[in-house]
Amino acid sequence: MTQIKSADGMVYNVPGGGTQALGIIGTVLGGIAVANQSNGLLGNLFGGNNNTNNCQALMSELAKEKAERYTDQVGTEVYKQFAKERNETQAQINALFAAIAQMDKTISVNEAVTNERVTCLAGKVSNIYDVFKLVVPNSSVCPGWGNVTITPSASTTTGA
CA–CA separation, 55 vs 62, rounded Å? Predict the structure, then answer.
């Protein structure tokens, strides 16, 4: 049984004897493959993985660039939508502030008018009270009792 070591370090048991020359050739070819880091037989003379690695690296870089461009595009669209909605919201807030300011003015005017009306009514009530205080007919105070006459009497003052 002959053992062959591959480029990736694995050891394989190959049945059958083989000659010493084939073992040496296999060892040399395996060594060349390891020395060239699996870039193919005799380097890149017959192709190998180097071109494939370069192509894969370029494809990976291109995919990264496309992903970044897409991310930038989506980010820009999201920001534009956010800015639009922010401006609409700010316009609504400004309209609400204007409406509140108008309500404040209206309330101030209404309070002033109400205070003036209360003052006016208080004066009228006071006038009505004064009228009742001065002249109240006897028939309104004690209906059915007849006329009442009040005469002042002369009071005498005695000296002490």
Answer: 10
